Amino acid sequence: MSSRRAAPGPSPFGAPQRRAIHDPNESAFSRFVREQIFAPENLPGNISILTAVTVFFGGIAAIRTWGDLMIPA
């Protein structure tokens, strides 16, 4: 039996390499939004967090709106 080496390319366990864009006129907030919120490697996790927060506050709004219908009369 012979062992095979993995094909050259990006590792599935490492972070993808991307080039940083440095704009001297960019504020710290806009740099944070670009690098942490809208970065392609962070987007799936951020969408999961946004979905969870939306469901949580949607549940609160639903109970406040229709909560009296859950109490037996």
From TrEMBL:
<feature type="transmembrane region" description="Helical">
    <location>
        <begin position="47"/>
        <end position="67"/>
    </location>
</feature>
<keyword id="KW-0472">Membrane</keyword>
<feature type="region of interest" description="Disordered">
    <location>
        <begin position="1"/>
        <end position="21"/>
    </location>
</feature>
<protein>
    <recommendedName>
        <fullName>TOM core complex subunit Tom6</fullName>
    </recommendedName>
</protein>
<keyword id="KW-0812">Transmembrane</keyword>
<keyword id="KW-1133">Transmembrane helix</keyword>
